[in-house]
Design brief:
It contains 17 helices and 15 strands. The protein is of the alpha/beta class and about 400 residues long. The chain folds into 2 domains: about 120 residues, Response regulator (Rossmann fold, 3-Layer(aba) Sandwich), CATH 3.40.50; about 270 residues, EAL domain (TIM Barrel, Alpha-Beta Barrel). α2 packs parallel to α3 and α8 packs parallel to α10. The chain binds ligand C2E and calcium ion (2 copies). One calcium ion (CA) binds next to β11. It comes from Pseudomonas schmalbachii.
């Protein structure tokens, strides 16, 4: 897979304060960024962006006399200027977060929203997002002129077994052990190369092929899972299931049958269903979910926190795990309001006696905060990106010591 792995080389720093600007410029120089431009306000910044379309990242102050940061973002979107953006402000994190979300909804590529004074580590974390992700894997990635796929191609992909499973590890924050993996679909397309689900999962969901796709992913996951168990890694494997497909009891039957014939006990299989899907379609899926739980399967509420369910609704769902959405995890160490939401999710999980996994852990700070707040499991780029199943044992051998050292356990 093509991954770019470099910091940006051409950055524009926008701040009305000379002192603040020089401070960030010095940090960029220290990080080895070769080309750095400066602007005093939004107008100046837009002029420079138009003159130098090769600028890759703009660090944008929000409060400036003249054109402020919010207006500058609107203008950038209107003019189709699309450098990646890092927001900077001394204002509170709620405000920063609102502007960050606004920027995303304008289609801009936001790398982060930092509260001043900015540390070099924070700047580096945001700058490295410029290329730290595989192109097109981020939810907010701008739509790229990509291959057009249609239902006919999906059908062929299923027949030819072109869908492959990547696996992202989940690690215990209590003792640093590898507890399980989440299976994430990829399409090894014959002409377009490896595609991430943002390019095609919506199409499959609208087609007649979602159940069959889920079963192919389950088979792939079970095969790898058996290999890991035989190699002495008793991992659980989480599978993403769209709630619509569970409304048809035949899918549940097929899952139960395939797991039974795989020799993997159902307790090692966790079905992830998004919070919003579970909450909107309670009546049709609840019975099926209860049945799967009775058979011993794990059931995880995915993207928890985005569906606005209350504790009462949650207590009616037979789930075993909450998976806290990365929007509440990533950056919670810096943003007080995220931390409050995270604490409340952990509190609910404890009260309902559920396992709790934080996803989107991207930095050591996120990891440490989660340990401090008593979260028990974590998943995210800080631990590992999704990888082919065969790569997992070697990854674990190479990373076990690093992760266990961070929970204070000597290997
Ligand atoms: P999801 O279930 O919430 O999966 C987590 C997504 O977040 C994955 O993207 C993963 O690569 C990404 N991710 C993991 N750690 C980090 C991190 O630290 N930072 C950031 N920024 N992202 C992180 P991916 O693989 O592109 O999958 C996107 C979505 O596609 C999944 O979101 C899930 O909703 C859907 N999906 C993936 N595989 C399947 C599948 O087999 N069946 C179904 N129905 N949906 C799937
Ligand atoms: Ca998931
Ligand atoms: Ca999720």
């Amino acid at each position: 897979m093509k991954t770019v792995n470099r910091l940006p080389e051409y950055v524009l720093i926008v701040d009305d304060s000379d002192v603040q600007r020089s401070f960030i410029v010095d940090q960029c120089i220290a990080l080895g960024i070769p080309r750095i431009l400066q602007a005093e306000d939004g107008c100046d910044a837009l002029a420079q962006l138009k003159a130098s379309p090769a600028i890759e990242v703009i660090v944008l102050d929000l409060e400036m006399p003249g054109m402020d940061g919010v207006e500058a973002l609107h203008e950038m979107a209107r003019l189709g200027l699309n450098p990646a953006v890092i927001l900077a402000s001394a204002r509170d994190s709620v405000l920063l977060n609102v502007v960050e979300n606004m920027g995303r909804s304008l289609g801009l590529h936001l790398l982060g929203a930092l509260q001043k004074p900015i540390t070099q580590e924070q700047l580096l974390t945001s700058l490295s997002r410029f290329s730290a992700v595989e192109p097109c894997t981020e939810r907010q990635a701008a739509p790229v002129p990509g291959p057009r796929v249609d239902e006919h191609e999906i059908q062929r992909a299923l027949q030819e077994k072109e869908f492959v499973a990547y696996f992202q590890p989940k690690v215990s924050l209590l003792d640093g052990t590898l507890t399980g993996v989440e299976a994430l679909i990829r399409w090894q397309h014959p002409t377009h190369g490896l595609l991430t689900p943002d390019r095609f999962i919506g199409l499959i969901e609208c087609s007649r092929h979602m159940a069959e796709t889920t079963l192919q992913m389950l088979d792939l996951a079970l095969r790898h899972c058996r290999g890991w168990h035989e190699a002495g890694l008793p991992l659980s494997c989480s599978i993403n299931v769209s709630a619509d497909t569970l409304a048809d009891t035949r899918l549940a039957e097929a899952i139960i049958a395939r797991v039974a014939s795989s020799g993997i006990a159902p307790r090692f299989v966790i079905l992830e269903i998004t919070e919003s899907a579970i909450m909107t379609d309670l009546s049709t899926t609840l019975g099926t979910l209860a049945r799967l739980r009775l058979k011993g399967f794990g059931l995880s509420v995915d993207d928890y926190g985005t569906g606005f369910s209350c504790m009462l609704q949650l207590s009616r769902v037979p789930c075993s795990e909450l998976k806290i959405d990365r929007a509440f995890v990533n950056g919670a160490s810096q943003k007080l309001h995220l931390r409050v939401l995270l604490e409340s999710a952990l509190d609910i999980a404890r009260k309902l006696d559920l396992r709790v996994v934080a996803e989107g852990v991207e930095s050591r700070d996120d990891w440490e905060l989660l340990c401090q707040l008593g979260c028990t499991e974590a998943q995210g780029y800080f631990i590992a990106k999704p990888m082919p199943g065969d790569a997992l044992p070697a990854w674990w051998r190479a990373n076990q010591e690093r992760l266990q050292a961070m929970v204070g356990i000597a290997v």
